[in-house]
Amino acid sequence: KWLDAHYDPVANLYTFSSCIVGDLGTGASNMKLKVYRGTGLLSENTLLDLPTGLVSFLMDQHEPCTPAIAVASGPFIYIYKNLRPYFKFTLPTLEVNPLEQDVWSQAREDMIDPMTLKEMLEGIRFLMLEPQDMEAYVNLHKQQPIRRQTVITCIGTLKKNMADDDAVSCLVIGTESQEVYILDPEAFTILAKMSLPSVPTLMDVTGQFDVEFRITIACRNGNIYILRRDSPRPKYCIELSSHPVGLVRMGKNVVVGCAQETLHGYTQKGKKLWTTYLPAPVTTMAVLDLPTRGFQAVLVGLANCEVHVYRDKNLISTIKTPDLVTSICFGRYGREDGTLIMTTKGGGLIVKILKRTAVFDDKDSAPGPPIAQSIRLNVPKKTKLYVDQTMRERENAVAMHRAFQMDLSRMRLAAARAYVKALESSLTPMSASLTEPLKMNAVVQGLGPSFKLTLNIQNTAACRPVMNLAISFLYDENLYSMRTAFFKIPLLVPGLNYPIDTFVECLSDKGISDIIKVFVLREGKSAPLLTAHINMPVSEGLALN
């Protein structure tokens, strides 16, 4: 299903799905924004701080429509256009504690000494310094204005007023201060501000800002919140059993990968639809969307060097990778609509192309119960007859239960009587006698008119042999004749199978058959130990003659 287009194990790309095409470097230095054309590196731009997210979006409708790149890093958003730095947006500062503001104002005017300043700041836990470093720190910072700055934790895009692919998009950012901002794409002013109960970590945005939109956010407290237009607080909340490590949207449903090696499906209102257990922890997630085929699935990168493709809860494909996948992206790349780009833990770059003839089966390729087990039954509506029967059963419950118990007791009595009758008349193929525990079965061979009848007799006792036994046959002499209808059985050793053969001739040419009864007898007793009824087949050989 997949073509291996390119693999570079030493591409030196260390990144995540939120920063794909951005290189994190070592996490403290050598952070770069790398741009590829085809499989070759086109340009590099050095980043000043560790990026937390990267998105592409259209700022305006001017021809030619060239998308811009927004890189979130610390409290800033760096905008790149035509592969060059274009604009830098800074998050608004947060409100400063009034007590801290007043104390630093007094220190600026030398109204308090450093020891008093430290004591007052320790009460609100803003300053933790050793005594010998206090005076130098105060002299260095007292003339500077006090600012409280937050940082960006996740970033996304939201169409402004049209759903077209070439429509203008707004930036949506989540911050460490538990707030979500929506920015204007041209002036970079704040269009909307929403608050969350916890710090956002993952984000998925759908809709249009001027019409209706939904922002699905996974937070650090292990919950997922859904924000809607004209609502400053979350509209719905999904409580998870473990922390989310991946979040994607499929149509009107939300798919969440959790730290407990599980994949969950939820509706937009937080109702749980299904759960799938994974063979390894989730490392990254992305959407596989093919609008030309009307096909959507979820790509899940796992820690066992595999990428699983899920449609709802069904595993429809598995991709083996040479290294652990850390970031994944699917979409149009060049002239190919179905291109899968992955980076690995060792810094490698993998490019795969989906075959145009590839077909994904809806059935689950993973072992487990069939798909039909999870399909809801089409239960018909309750009819008037059903309701009347229910009312009758409620009103006559005691009488119906007594009648059922009476019929059950009668059936048990009839079964017990038939069993006792079979034991007394020795009609069973196993002996009920404790002194001669025997077992017998019969095999008929041949097409006719001659049949070979083989009786297999076995002594099932633990250590006691059985002797002085005989076999007798009872049959219709007008239909069959036997060479030997009565003979004695030799001593039966426990555990051994004794085959006894005899021949039966069919005398009728009318194509009919009958039963031959076999009796195992003991000398001196009139009742047989065993009885077997052999249904003889129709003599085909005689019919041919």
UniProtKB/TrEMBL annotation:
Localization, UniProt: Cell projection, Cilium membrane; Cytoplasm, Cytoskeleton, Microtubule organizing center, Centrosome, Centriolar satellite
Annotated Gene3D superfamilies: YVTN repeat-like/Quinoprotein amine dehydrogenase (2.130.10.10)
Any one biological process term the GO annotation gives: retina homeostasis
Segments forming domain Bardet-Biedl syndrome 1 protein GAE: 438-540
Alphabetized InterPro entries for the sequence: BBS1, BBS1_N, GAE_BBS1, Quinoprotein_ADH-like_sf, WD40/YVTN_repeat-like_dom_sf
SUPFAM superfamilies linked to this entry: Quinoprotein alcohol dehydrogenase-like
Name under which the protein is recorded: BBSome complex member BBS1
Main subcellular localisation: membrane
GO molecular function annotations of the record: patched binding; smoothened binding
Keywords tagged on the record: Acetylation, Cell membrane, Cell projection, Cilium, Cilium biogenesis/degradation, Cytoplasm, Cytoskeleton, Membrane, Olfaction, Protein transport, Sensory transduction, Transport, Vision
Source domain of life: Eukaryota
Pfam families xref list: BBS1, GAE_BBS1
Description of how the protein assembles with itself and partners: Part of BBSome complex, that contains BBS1, BBS2, BBS4, BBS5, BBS7, BBS8/TTC8, BBS9 and BBIP10. Interacts with the C-terminus of RAB3IP. Interacts with CCDC28B and ALDOB. Interacts with PKD1.
Domain (Bardet-Biedl syndrome 1 N-terminal) ranges: 2-228
Native source species: Pygocentrus nattereri
GO cellular component terms given for this protein: axoneme; BBSome; centriolar satellite; ciliary membrane
